[in-house]
Records
---
Amino acid sequence: MRRPWTTTLAAVRQIIPDFRRDELHLNVGHASGHYFDNQATRVDARHGEILRAIADHRAQTGGRLHPVKFLEDRYQALVANYYDTGKSPLPCTALSSSCFIDAYWNLFACSIWSEQVGNLRANGFDLSDLWHGSRRRELRDAVVEQRCAHCWTPCEAYPTIPGNLARAAMA
């Protein structure tokens, strides 16, 4: 049986013949109103198949001592935990070490949670003012208290992993 990811690799290699499997990044789907405009889409219906694909990919790409490979490996190792709980497997660092700014200059905690901190254009492009403001602190508290959209996207996971390095390394 041909697996879907081998079809993907074959298609990429038609355009980029020397493309290596370890150059392929696997992450899990999410819904977001302000980023993907897919809030009504069910993105997690095939957990078992997704987890098998990730396990196969991890087995075939092996472990390299490289910062990006480490982040990707830890991200993928924690996907099952995310599927089991529906929450970030590590305390999220959104609005502490990262944020998301959309094409309209809206500042969000992340690409998934649609709660807006503010708008940079309307605020004279003063990120520091928004970052140190009460709305950012209110939303950061909500992230800490897990009252957010609960995701495990690489955009949020990659800064979260170093922020929880001991726990991430043990996963």
Note: The CA atoms of residues 21 and 61 lie 7 Å apart.
---
Amino acid sequence: MPTRDFYEVLGVARGADDAEIKRAFRQLARKYHPDANPDDPQAAEKFKEIGLAYSVLSDAEKRTKYDQLGHAAFAQAESGGGPGGAGGFAQGFGGLGFEDLFESVLGDAFFGGRSGRRRNGPARGADLRVAVQVTFEQAAFGTTKEITVPRTEACQACSGTGASAGSRPKPCPTCSGSGQVRVARATPFGQFVSVQPCTTCSGRGTVLEKPCAECQGQGRIRRRRTLSVHFPAGIEDGQRLRLTGEGEAGDRGGPAGDLYVDVAVAAHARFHREGQDVVSEVTVGLAQAALGAEVEIDTIEGKMPLRVPEGTQPGDVVRLRGRGIVAVGGHSRGDHRAVIRVEVPRQLSPAERHALRQYAEARGERVDGAERHPFRRVLGR
């Protein structure tokens, strides 16, 4: 048996009128509906509690009894002596699902068109999603690729109706074309009428006398469709393209869904991207870094000259302006950033060693000299 006061459950005063009670019920039902809280088991219990409170306070006779006796007014039903048998409160409404109760009170607008009145109308097709990989250069400059997508399409033989040539879908004899049937159920609190999809036509409202042989009456058929997809210049890894109407076919004349293409940009051996800039490492010699030099480097457009300034230090960045990646849908373009690595030679010829020793002496730097290591001269090191 419930323990919380029903007025407290709905958050209304004891003198609240029917409109206030219904308004409070609607707000709470939307908030705690299980579909809106799939990972919260407490929301489902709250949802049931709200429905139970409303079923009592929205009925004048039951509300009067509740105001006089509280929960004890329905103790007989709870103990098994009243209508509905044992567990009247705990088991809901005599077998009537809580969603049925909410639908009978709030109607299709609350449930987003779950009832048969909406099911027999056009339905949009499902969206599809595929992943496509492009190279670093293709992402930088843009490309067009052909992709193959398995999907359902409207059957050409019957134009999506599901009926064979010369025949048409006819209204369902069970539901008279409405796609729904009304079911009355007795509960401890009276009779409730709920609306359910018609089982004869599965909520469509129509039946087929001669189903199409091509699609077996489904109106749709599975095919593998090849599509041409354009990837704009500057697209980045993880971005998504949307192709409107290229998803699954709609049902009963509904529009097709969309196709979403997730872009994966393959890693490059020499470059990586930072925003619109392309970044690479460039190795130069010790003398080139110290004295300055012009070297040739790889870019996304091929080999280009790069001026290394005099006195460049390891880790310094030299830019090639406007040689990066263009912004998607724009005209601005990033730079190519060359991160300088200075190569220190591991082995030196006698001439190189002599030259470096002179350089060290000129700068006053102490280094290992051949005079203090005679065996190195013999070994040529």
Note: The CA atoms of residues 295 and 306 lie 5 Å apart.
